[in-house]
Write a structure and sequence with these properties.
With 400 residues, this protein is mainly β. The chain has 2 helices and 25 strands. It has helices at 2-15, 124-127; strands spanning 17-18, 51-52, 56-64, 67-72, 79-83, 87-91, 115-120, 129-137, 143-152, 159-167, 182-184, 190-193, 213-217, 239-242, 247-252, 259-263, 270-274, 313-315, 321-326, 339-343, 348-355, 358-365, 372-377, 383-387, 393-399.
Length: 400
């Protein structure tokens, strides 16, 4: 019986392969900034790849209202989903959606603001601890990206012991570009991302603010003693990197332990970045995109080096990235180590074939399914993702 099962799995892997890189990149339309070349050959327009047979697409749950973040609970206990309007829900594996959980902090649910990301603490199975990010009210019509640590009740009906561990300062009135992914790091600290709040883009170059930045704190919100800006006068002690626009994806490479992020460009110029402690990523001085009206960003430069850390990959036209994850599942062994990214404009799960720090191929999975906001990997290796379609949003599944 075991030999028969092993043979069946081997045949399945042989039948389901990733085609070698094709000569052309994925067809996604004309660039917003033509004539701009990449800094190195693998920085954009990777060869298109196709997984055959195509993964099967199915629906896990429907009727979600503008979901933003997804977490897979251990032990087959289902999923937690944030809804931007300010509700947190439990979704059972059979698709049953719970009533809103009690104890969720107050949010500013306007435009891009609301209840945003969710991540489980590494010791969640014992501690029931998790993290949330949100647009927090700050008075006089202002809001700030904030993060809280909380504990999920045993009956999964409420949050308890909610404690704020970070708040962006100063707050802003513009209800956009909150960033807002949160990721526990291998060293026990926590990274979270912020945006430039749209009309305050210049603050992304100011290390005294938490705008357009990766922030690093302890689980309790304290400053880690090795943060890179601690010895810089006037700099924010929790700052880890800056010069970002609107970071909406973040994940840790399970092999290297390093943090990767995805950020929205303007018209063109979405970026995949490998985060260097203390790094400056160039916004709003350098960009591979242009402003929405067609004018140049900053002083018009595209290449980031030598002044700024260049992206490992960029898109023009944009995919409008959401959440991301490194694939480690057993169901698609040929994807091991690849990045799976949510694509809002791409309306797909975007798979990046990663070789070390180089993107060697790109695939659009479930293309046309709708705006994809977040992505996760289930215990069996199936790929889960959220669509962002107002009150008709869904939790979807891609499987062998």
């Amino acid at each position: 019986m075991r030999r028969a099962l092993a043979l069946a799995l081997a045949l399945a892997c042989l039948a389901s392969f990733t085609a070698p890189g094709l000569a052309e990149p994925w067809p996604d339309g004309a660039p917003n900034r033509p004539g701009i070349g990449p800094a190195f050959p693998e920085q954009t327009e990777a060869p298109a790849q196709i997984t055959r047979p195509a993964p099967a697409l199915s629906q896990v749950a429907s009727g979600l209202d503008t979901p933003w973040g997804l977490a897979v609970l251990p032990g087959g206990a289902g999923y937690l989903v944030t809804e931007r309007g300010g509700t947190l829900r439990h979704v059972a594996r059979d698709g049953a959606v719970s009533a809103p959980l009690a104890g969720v902090p107050e949010v500013v649910a306007f435009r891009q603001g609301g209840l945003l990301d969710i991540a489980l603490a590494p010791d969640f199975a014992d501690s029931r601890a998790l993290y949330l990010t949100l647009a927090a009210p700050a008075g006089l019509g202002r809001s700030a990206t904030a993060a809280v640590r909380a504990r999920l009740s045993q009956d999964m009906g409420a949050l308890q012991d909610v404690t704020e561990i970070f708040r962006q300062d100063p707050p802003a009135m513009i209800p956009g570009h909150f960033g807002s992914r949160i990721v526990p790091l291998p060293d026990g600290t926590v990274a979270l991302t912020t945006g430039d709040r749209m009309r305050h883009a210049a603050r992304a170059q100011d290390p005294a603010t938490g705008y357009g930045a990766v922030i690093r704190v302890t689980p309790e919100g304290a400053v880690p003693p090795d943060n890179p800006f601690l010895d810089r006068p006037g700099a924010l002690a929790t700052l880890y990197s800056h010069g970002h626009r609107n970071l909406q994806g973040a994940a840790v490479d399970p092999v290297t332990g390093r943090l990767w992020t995805l950020e929205h460009g303007p018209a063109g110029g979405d970026e995949l970045n490998l985060i260097e402690p203390g790094g400056n990523y160039g916004w709003p001085v350098a960009s591979y995109g242009v402003n929405y009206g067609g004018s140049e960003v900053g002083d018009g430069r595209a290449a980031h080096a030598p002044d700024f850390v260049p992206p490992r990959y960029y898109w023009d036209p944009v995919i409008a990235p959401g959440g991301m994850v490194f694939y480690e599942g057993a169901m698609f062994p040929e994807w091991r180590g690849d990045i799976l990214a949510a694509g809002l404009v791409a309306q797909a799960v975007v798979r990046l074939d990663l070789s070390g720090e180089r993107v060697t191929g790109e695939e659009r999975l479930a293309e046309g399914v709708g705006r994809v906001r977040d992505v996760a990997v289930d215990a069996d290796g199936a790929v889960l993702f959220l669509t962002d379609e107002g009150d008709a949003s869904r939790l979807m599944r891609l499987a062998r």
